[in-house]
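Re: [ENG-882] Designed sequences occasionally contain unexpected residues at chain ends

Forwarding the minimal case from QA. Structure tokens:
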């Protein structure tokens, strides 16, 4: 993985790490701060290979503390490798639908839908910001 370039590294804890494209992260941050204001959070992410992490809650919380992780998902590492292969930028917006320790999934359908809608709106606004910068 580290042979892919400087954005692909290994942490002190021997965990693979990928940095999203700076311009995309900046656009997401502007959009998130503007659209969802106080509920927007910036942080790292852990890609895992199943819906329910093989990582224990303790290991995930350790990575949150040491690597500034806030979310988990199953796709970003593959997207990062594909983006690198095609020499294009990439980033990620997440809808937070659960919290650890605690409930890994929000039970309130309305709250889940609102988080997902906000994430989509932030993503769309970030794309608009990126297009304006390139124009």
């Amino acid at each position: 993985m580290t042979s892919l370039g400087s954005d692909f590294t290994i942490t002190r804890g021997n965990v693979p790490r990928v940095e999203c494209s700076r311009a995309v992260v900046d656009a997401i941050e502007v959009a998130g701060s503007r659209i969802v204001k106080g509920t927007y959070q910036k942080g790292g992410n852990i890609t895992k290979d199943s819906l329910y992490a093989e990582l224990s809650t303790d290991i995930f919380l350790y990575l949150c503390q040491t690597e500034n992780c806030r979310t988990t998902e199953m796709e970003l590492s593959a997207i990062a490798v594909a983006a690198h292969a095609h020499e294009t930028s990439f980033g990620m917006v997440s809808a937070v639908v659960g919290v650890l320790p605690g409930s890994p999934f929000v039970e309130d359908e309305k709250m889940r839908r609102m988080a997902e809608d906000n994430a989509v709106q932030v993503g769309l606004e970030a794309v608009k910001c990126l297009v304006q910068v390139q124009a």
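QA comment: On inspection the terminal residues look reasonable. The chain has four helices and four strands. Proposing we downgrade this to a documentation issue.
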